[in-house]
């Protein structure tokens, strides 16, 4: 049997730096645990635009469709701010999500014990926090038609369309209920059903899927604005949150920031099972390309490393190895090793990106 | 000259209770400061639905168009959850906003010194916080067409449309720049221009209005997801935030919760000047109808009282009287008077709604 295949797309900014550490980790699993991967690498985002005039070539898109999992660093940067919408770095990422049909985006917001002090929230509010936000990732206002800027009389008019079909909602709801069963068995669905018809359909379909297939899971509904409030007020009330693409974008970022350690948070974007039974999958850190610190060896590779841990769990059925890697990261934090983003006081020298990666390997 | 006119719409849940305290305050200003108002009262939301089968009658709508300012309590409640979309309590409020063309929604997020401990955030992150969120209130996905739930083949499809014209963006941008000039002179505009064309137009128009009319104001742009993060991480970096209807809904609620005292936060919704020079205006607390505590004399009337203070300032050019009222509320807090929502420890008996109102009057 051939090795499972990984396509690595480091992207822009700190993407390549953090991905270099992940490659070390991948090699370690090959050398020490007999988990070999066929790794290939390619361009995405601004890097792809610079080389090919497009943020994702058709060839790269094809490769992404063929591999067992894609690992992505980050895309974007001020250099590309004035590019035409259709070739912005983000379009590369959005094309991957859409064409691979990665409808279920798992965004854990987890507060690491060693880092609880680092949150802007009071320690008792966030210590031990462990919530999972499931964001719909291939539909909604990100992709709905019609869209664009048109001219009406003398005026420009900007238009986007939120559009959700019943089956789009049902499949992401299912993935939330499945996940909840392996965790705290509680799902809170968020929309604006008091204002938007697409929110009414969202609420109804989530409830129907629940009643027909997952009556054992505790389900509640909350308006997204109240959800934003409750995340700030008492985030530990949540277990799994399921919401649409746009609300998920804001709410998962707010939730990530609650933990105080954005540089620690991974994500998985999953689609339907392929012929080999594995889901289509893309893994990426929640943080962005951080152009302000790129090239300075300051970036925290942990979010990207933990994204690979999610790959081990969700794509390769290696839950135990994933846990091993996660525990290694926690142990490094417990030892007080910190990249610059995790430091509050001056005095100590922060670890560089590669020192952090090496520390994780030492713990493995 | 006749007295300025006020239409009071107490609405549902705790709305009538908090509004009763505001009426005491209004009387005080008439008796002691010679500020007489012609006050009328009417129904909105579930209360209007119960009486008339609609959350806002045409007669009430007409009255709202004629008065100098509307004061609203809150709308909604579980009793109305299963009503048809078109007669839900919220539609009454949305009709008022839309037909009065109240495009500029001012939502201060202010942390009261006496309450800084009450936030879920660390004290140094929120103490002294004073930001103003300007939310566009009459357009965007709340009102765009087409909308609805349609049938496509066997499937239901939920549709809403985000739609912004250049002039809709320009006028709310102007109101943000005007306000910034009276405050810290800084505006941060938030959208998702990396994903939505309507966000590109938003960003461009805000920049154009700035460059042509307000070059003295410091302007920055931020993606709304990053904005949600930064509000949690370091909210004091902001002075005025301007954003669209939907983002404003979530971001202003998150910002409100940062202060830890939702029961304290007022809002103003302003439109174009009327013949008498006053803007069309509606004032309402940020909190909702809180059906769980309705009828128990537990509600905090301060948000509604401070909404009346905003009316004094923005509709009646009584900035000094507004400040007098705001200072009275602060003094009451400094004395340790607390409604139940502002109490952390047991032991002390909380003030009732009317005790809180009376305490404010005593300070005036
Ligand atoms: C980069 C951008 C297109 C993306 C999004 O808006 O989805 C990012 O914010 C995210 O959350 O993954
Ligand atoms: C009650 C509801 C329609 C309203 C909104 O979504 O605008 C509320 O959340 C608000 O923020 O004023």
From TrEMBL, chains A, B:
Q: Where are the transmembrane segments?
A: none
Q: Provide one Gene Ontology cellular component.
A: cytosol
Share what the entry says about its subunit structure, partners included: Homodimer.
Q: What Enzyme Commission number does this protein have?
A: 1.1.1.85
Function of the protein: Catalyzes the oxidation of 3-carboxy-2-hydroxy-4-methylpentanoate (3-isopropylmalate) to 3-carboxy-4-methyl-2-oxopentanoate. The product decarboxylates to 4-methyl-2 oxopentanoate.
Where, in this chain's numbering, is Mg(2+) bound? 225, 249, 253
Cross-referenced InterPro entries: IsoCit/isopropylmalate_DH_CS, IsoPropMal-DH-like_dom, Isopropylmalate_DH
Indicate the annotated site residue(s) for Important for catalysis: 142, 192
Could you tell me what this protein is called? Answer: 3-isopropylmalate dehydrogenase
Organism field:
Actibacterium lipolyticum
Q: Where does this polypeptide localize?
A: Cytoplasm
Recorded catalytic activity of this chain's protein? (2R,3S)-3-isopropylmalate + NAD(+) = 4-methyl-2-oxopentanoate + CO2 + NADH
Q: How is the cofactor bound?
A: Binds 1 Mg(2+) or Mn(2+) ion per subunit.
Binding annotation for NAD(+): 77-90, 288-300
- Required co-factors: Mn(2+); Mg(2+)
Q: Which family does it belong to?
A: Belongs to the isocitrate and isopropylmalate dehydrogenases family. LeuB type 1 subfamily.
Q: Does the keyword Amino-acid biosynthesis apply?
A: yes
Swiss-Prot/TrEMBL keywords: Amino-acid biosynthesis, Branched-chain amino acid biosynthesis, Cytoplasm, Leucine biosynthesis, Magnesium, Manganese, Metal-binding, NAD, Oxidoreductase
Q: Name one GO molecular function term.
A: 3-isopropylmalate dehydrogenase activity
User: What Gene Ontology terms for biological process does this UniProt record contain?
Assistant: L-leucine biosynthetic process
Q: Which domain of life is it from?
A: Bacteria
Query: Residues that bind substrate, according to the entry?
Result: 97, 107, 135, 225
Its EC top class is oxidoreductase
Q: Which SMART domains match?
A: Iso_dh (SM01329)
Signal peptide (UniProt feature, chain positions): none
Residues annotated as domain Isopropylmalate dehydrogenase-like: 5-360
